[in-house]
Design goal:
The chain has 7 helices and 11 strands. The chain is of the alpha+beta class. Among the domains are: about 1-35; about 50-165, OB fold (Dihydrolipoamide Acetyltransferase, E2P). A 6-stranded antiparallel β-sheet has the order 3-4-5-11-10-7. A 3-stranded antiparallel β-sheet has the order 6-8-9. Strands 1-2 form a two-stranded antiparallel ribbon. A hairpin with a 4-residue loop joins strand 4 and strand 5. The longest helix has about 35 residues, at about 1-35. It is globular. The protein starts with a helix and ends with a helix.
Length: about 220
């Protein structure tokens, strides 16, 4: 009987220690997310568009980066940032709000027009990037770094990520998207698209405005 009680006590102690450690890790993850601690992006290039190898892409030109099994950072990709240019303001969902994959969650305003983008992930918003709200130019200058938008706790992140593009598939898609954009731009707007994958290649940021901007963003962002 004594042996059984000892074994049971040890088992309970192990469970308590595990739960305490797990809670500590979760709190640390959320604190890091709230402070803007961003894992270093493995930057690559596809047709002059920056393409980090450690993120996954939604077809609406948003990205998701797993910082833990359930904590995900999200933002918009480099091609979307170049199409939008320097926005006037950004509207983000509230902390605690539940968002769904493919749902319109970001509103970006420029010259009196609004464009919306889709969430790459489903879950609860745990933090928003107040810095990019105060200084929307960060979205244009550093979309994978200081221009991130949200962090989300996604209990079903594994399933969500199966619906996103990564690796060679993402690279090919981005090359195709850059090429498609070059055919959509008016002749008066230079767009230099390269297909050699050279990191020195560039796609010049198009100065799109008015109705043309709205139509292009709706087409490329799937809204």
């Amino acid at each position: 009987m004594t042996v059984v009680l000892v074994v049971l006590s040890l088992a309970i102690l192990i469970v308590i220690v595990y739960m305490m450690r797990r809670k500590k890790v979760t709190v640390t993850e959320l604190e890091n997310a709230a402070s803007g601690a961003i894992p270093k992006a493995q930057l690559e290039c596809a047709s002059g568009i920056r393409l980090p190898g450690n993120v996954r892409f939604h077809l609406g030109h948003t990205w998701a980066l797993r910082e833990s099994p359930t904590l995900v950072r999200v933002g918009i990709d480099d091609l979307a940032a170049r199409m939008i240019g320097r926005p006037d303001s950004i509207l983000l969902p509230r902390r605690g709000q539940w968002i769904r994959q493919g749902q319109k969650i970001f509103s970006i305003f420029k010259e009196g027009s609004k464009v919306e983008l889709l969430s790459p992930i489903e879950g609860e918003v745990t933090s928003v990037n107040e810095a990019v709200v105060k200084d929307p130019s960060l979205l244009d200058s550093d979309p994978y770094g200081d221009g991130w938008l949200l962090t989300v706790v996604s209990p079903d992140a594994e399933t969500n990520f199966r619906n996103l593009l990564g690796g060679n598939l993402a690279r090919k898609w981005m090359v195709d998207e850059a090429s498609r954009l070059s055919t959509k731009m008016p002749a008066s707007i230079p767009v230099a698209v390269h297909h050699n994958g050279d990191e020195n290649s560039e796609v010049s940021s198009p100065q799109i405005s008015g109705q043309n901007w709205i139509e292009l963003t709706h087409e490329f962002f799937g809204v």
